[in-house]
Inverse folding.
């Protein structure tokens, strides 16, 4: 058994990372086949749900994580990992889970899209605030950085483009979208 999580090394090559990104893009495309523009328009008419969702995601989740870190007191690197995950948006797998649960997919996608767009600015700030409230993570936080251009590129490739293509197919070819959705859906 490994006693020090810092001694674990994960060798993740570029090809494997692209495979993960392609898989996430396909999931997003499948979700988008069931979404219409009117789904998003309804959300903009009542933005409270989106606002509350984003507020909870960027405030409540990191606050609970910080509380958990204080209670269990893991190694600083593990605590920082938990805080990084808590500070980041949920990602498009949440859209897939929402679709499986027959929830409000448009709301989920809206939250994901808004949170992801905001994440370029909010995640580093959010991480700096929450991680600096726990001294062990504050010490190693100084070594972390995000490349906003690379993050934007990946977000567009795995979220934005599949969303637009899926919604376009749904709009222009609704019967084909239904058939395709049945193939892609779990």
């Amino acid at each position: 058994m490994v006693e020090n999580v810092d001694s674990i090394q994960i060798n993740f090559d570029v090809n494997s990372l692209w495979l993960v990104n392609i898989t996430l893009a396909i999931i997003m495309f499948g979700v988008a086949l069931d979404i219409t523009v009117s789904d998003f328009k309804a959300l903009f008419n009542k933005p409270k749900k989106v606002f509350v969702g984003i507020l909870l995601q960027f405030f409540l989740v990191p606050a609970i994580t910080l509380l958990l870190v204080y209670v269990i007191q893991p190694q600083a690197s593990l605590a920082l990992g938990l805080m990084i995950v808590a500070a980041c948006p949920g990602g498009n797998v949440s859209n897939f889970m929402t679709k499986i649960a027959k929830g409000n997919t448009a709301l989920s996608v809206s939250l994901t899209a808004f949170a992801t767009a905001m994440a370029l600015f909010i995640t580093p700030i959010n991480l700096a605030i929450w991680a600096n409230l726990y001294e062990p993570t504050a010490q190693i936080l100084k070594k972390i950085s995000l490349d906003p251009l690379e993050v934007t590129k990946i977000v567009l490739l795995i979220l934005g483009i599949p969303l637009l293509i899926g919604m376009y197919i749904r709009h222009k070819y609704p019967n084909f979208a239904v058939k395709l959705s049945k193939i892609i859906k779990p």
The first helix runs from residue 14 to 32. The radius of gyration is 18 Å. The chain has a mean pLDDT of 82.
